[in-house]
């Protein structure tokens, strides 16, 4: 991966004052400030009183399952939609005002590339809208697309198109990029290359807000993680803080007793009707000690690590307080059924 500059101008701020866990903006320098934002589509509440501040130089991962509201939030920040309630600021201005979007790069979830244009022509075209774009050859090299410069975009693979889409978000040397699932459809090598490009951009002072379904992706890149589910921010913390919340162990055991209320059990499931139970706990050793000393009957004990993915699923599956105890998780709502675009 090239170490050549792809990021913001040398005058861009590079030392963020991060405030994980704090949402509404009190900072006049915030790149993004969403304050108590609600956005509905007909009867669907896509975002419910969401507040989020991103300071210069932060790399924030927005993590959540399908339909959580991630893309909707990015569309408000990029000025494509407006909130029904609350305010959104981009570089201190209204993102629907084009002047506020100078310095914004965006890779939407789906990108339409003109099929008959060559790769280099698309980069030239998009770069031509900016005062000091990254030279096309340099950008294509950085994204491993140099050999495809003369190929029509219609003849690119899905993964190659995705890389080009992310490259295009950086061509104008933005100060912030919004990346909506940047590595969807990429193989392992391409994903790593793209992560490198994002790290390089961030390392040079760029601000990044990226969405993903994948904890691994956010773990690989982000310093701060915002977990969103059903339009509600469930957690906003440093990466370490989030990982601590999801570091559960899984204890599989057979017992005639119901063990779901044993000390330290934060969640349990019955695996069959012969007493097999799956118990989630942050401290498996303590749970085993409790089982032994309490005299409760049990057998077939197994202890496994809960994968991060599993733990995250619990965190967003409705009762996040049991797992992660975020301070103030509002209740959940149903969110489906409308197709209205109430822009
Ligand atoms: N144009 C629209 N019309 C109607 N409903 C919409 C529209 N856009 C989004 N929604 C709904 O708003 C909710 C949030 O959608 P959004 O696309 O923001 O979620 P997401 O977290 O980005 O999901 P995914 O990870 O699947 O992309 C969903 O229930 C979705 O169906």
From TrEMBL:
GO annotation (BP), single: response to antibiotic
GO molecular-function term, one example from the UniProt record: ATP binding
ABC transporter domain residues: 32-255
The UniProt record lists the keyword Isomerase: no
Keyword ATP-binding (UniProt): yes
Membrane topology: Peripheral membrane protein
InterPro entries in the cross-refs: AAA+_ATPase, ABC_transporter-like_ATP-bd, ABC_transporter-like_CS, ABC_transporter_ATP-binding, P-loop_NTPase
Location(s) in or outside the cell: Cell membrane
Pfam families referenced in this protein's UniProt entry, alphabetically: ABC_tran (PF00005)
GO cellular component, one term: plasma membrane
Keywords: Antibiotic resistance, ATP-binding, Nucleotide-binding, Transport
SUPFAM superfamilies associated with the record: P-loop containing nucleoside triphosphate hydrolases (SSF52540)
Region listing for Disordered, in residue ranges: 1-31, 318-343
Domain of life per record: Bacteria
Name assigned to this protein: ABC transporter ATP-binding protein
Organism of origin: Cellulosimicrobium arenosum
